[in-house]
Design a protein that fits this description.
Length: 431
């Protein structure tokens, strides 16, 4: 029987491998906004907003997918293409329907992805294929896993799409969300089914769009097209899109368009990011301080201020700003990880280790956090522990040979039977 820790590595490796292959964009502000947008439809679907998270894959192609009931993945390109909160909520509702209707559970059972540790590589391969939109990216992860199997796992039948559409529309209506957002989203993909596969967006390949499906959605949505937009949802959608855009577009592009921002605080936030990325720290801090003057207790603007300092190597200032963000949102693992990284860069190794360990307890799936934690242990001469967290980082990234090498090194230097020694054994026991 698998230990709980090893089982966690197997089940969570899919998320981590996506981070490696396509890059997960981990940002507390963006994830908070997506959580707020998702909560109504998740509740309507019978899912817990606490247990089911929406994460962003750094990919400008249009796609969204689920692998299990804990994560809904949205490509950054799809988020940026959404014009309204209802459009984004319709995608989340549709993916939630695939979970609630059992589509993913049946497919996982058929492929036996999680039966035992021997299927570790298969799970990783599916995740890589999901992130890339093709089976080819999985080749180097699981020997003998066919690309066709990956595509089969990710692709939904027309019957499943119709079922998910109907359920998603019901979630939206019950949540008071205008379902025309789904029509607007599907309009983006109209005509792509006639393109050669290489020119289609991944979403079309995994979510077949037909004229009958489009007509059915339009008919159902038009019966409720008088539902008004929720101002809070409009704000958070604008904030998510505005921040993501500012980090992904050229600073000059952002600065030329900040005047069109939904609110003043979002305008100043976008300006701060653009100036920071252009290397103008003074203007960046002035801009984020203007945003903070409008929302003084906003932990995410404090977090951004800390990140701006960090990007410009003002480590002491960054640590102080992270401390303020942490005080405002003490349970946020991403903010804690940033705080620890700033302390580490500022040479405060013991304090950094304490903070980074607190972050690890809350979220041990964060590969960047584990890297920083390994550095902190090494700086303090705790080399066995440095090897342990390095082993866990490699395991989460699917680099099992490297993980076992570091785990064996860690086990040799840790007290036999201790919790840390057991963690090393869990990595060694991966098959």
């Amino acid at each position: 029987m698998l230990s709980l820790r090893l089982a966690a590595f197997v089940s969570l490796s899919t998320c981590a491998q996506i981070a490696q292959s396509a890059g997960l964009l981990r940002d507390s502000d963006i994830e908070e906004g997506l959580s707020r947008l998702a909560a109504p439809v998740l509740i309507a679907a019978g899912l817990s907003p606490v247990s089911t998270k929406v994460l962003v894959v750094d990919d400008d192609r249009l796609n969204a997918f689920v692998i299990d009931r804990r994560y809904i993945f949205l490509h950054s390109g799809l988020i940026l293409r959404s014009k309204t909160p209802e459009m984004l909520q319709s995608v989340i509702a549709h993916e939630a329907a695939h979970i609630a209707n059992g589509h993913i559970a049946r497919r996982r059972q058929a492929l036996q992805l999680s039966r035992n540790a021997a299927n570790f590589g298969t799970a990783l391969a599916v995740a890589v294929g999901a992130a890339s939109g093709s089976g080819e990216a999985a080749t180097g992860i699981a020997l003998g896993v066919r690309g066709s199997a990956t595509r089969k796992f990710l692709s939904h039948s027309r019957a499943e799409e119709s079922s998910a559409d109907q359920s998603a529309l019901g979630y939206m209506v019950r949540s008071g969300i205008n379902p025309m957002g789904m029509v607007d989203t599907l309009d983006i993909f109209v005509g792509q089914e006639n393109l050669v596969v290489g020119r289609q967006d991944p979403y079309v390949r995994s979510h077949p769009l037909t004229r009958d499906r489009m007509r059915s959605v339009e008919t159902m949505a038009m019966a409720h097209d008088d539902l008004p937009s929720d101002p809070d949802m409009v704000y958070w959608h604008a904030r998510v899109v505005g921040k993501l855009s500012a980090f992904q577009r050229a600073p000059s592009w952002t600065l030329g368009r900040v005047k069109d921002s939904h609110t003043e605080d979002i305008k100043h936030m976008r300006s701060a990011i653009a100036h920071g990325r252009a290397g103008n720290l003074t203007s960046a801090i002035q801009s984020i301080d203007r945003a903070l003057s409008l929302r003084p207790d906003d932990p995410f603007y404090q977090d951004l201020k800390a990140e701006l300092y960090m990007r410009n190597r003002a480590f002491s200032d960054s640590a102080r700003a992270y401390k303020k963000a942490h005080d405002l949102r003490p349970k946020d693992a991403i903010i804690l990880a940033g705080y620890g990284r700033a302390l580490l860069a500022d040479g405060k190794f013991s304090r950094a280790l304490d903070i980074l360990e607190q972050a690890r307890v809350r979220d041990f799936r964060n590969s960047a956090l584990l890297r920083d934690l390994g550095v902190a242990y090494s700086k303090l001469g705790k080399h066995a522990m440095a090897s342990l967290v390095t082993a866990e980082r490699y395991a989460l990234r699917g680099r099992i040979k490297d993980a076992k090498m570091h785990a064996n090194r860690a086990a040799a230097g840790l007290p036999v039977g201790s919790p840390s020694w057991q963690r090393a054994q869990d990595v060694i026991d991966i098959r």
